[in-house]
Amino acid sequence: MVTDEKHNARNRKYSRTPKGRKSYTKKNWKNRGLNMDTFYYVYPIFLNATNCERCGVEFEDNNGRNQKCMDHCHITGIFRNVVCRNCNVNVIPHIGKNKK
Ligand SMILES: [Zn+2]
């Protein structure tokens, strides 16, 4: 019988493998409203990106301002850019928000 502790340890290990990360990312983006028909081509772009497409900062894997984020249109769900977290939170999410 597998204890919860062992099960969790196995899940943590899996989440650090490329396959585990991909599955986690997929679930995460789906929840955020990305058009999942585009996932197969967005994901490699996301993986290979090293710098923010908006401000050019180098990505860091530290949950901080420079963490890699996927920016998508909140209306259509279509992927736009790979940006740092700092740029992602400063993006105007809705088209036409600045219209008079
Ligand atoms: Zn940026």
Set down the secondary structure blueprint.
Elements: H1 4-15, H2 18-32, H3 39-48, E1 68-72, E2 79-84, H4 85-90
Antiparallel strand pairs: 1-2
The protein binds zinc ion (ZN).
How would you portray this structure in words?
- This protein has helices at 4-15, 18-32, 39-48, 85-90, and strands spanning 68-72, 79-84.
- It has 100 residues and is α+β, with helices and mostly antiparallel strands.
- It has one domain (4-90).
- Strands 1-2 form a two-stranded antiparallel ribbon.
- It starts with a helix and ends in a 10-residue tail after the last helix.
- The structure holds zinc ion.
- Zinc ion binds at residues 52, 54-55, 57, 83-84, 86-87.
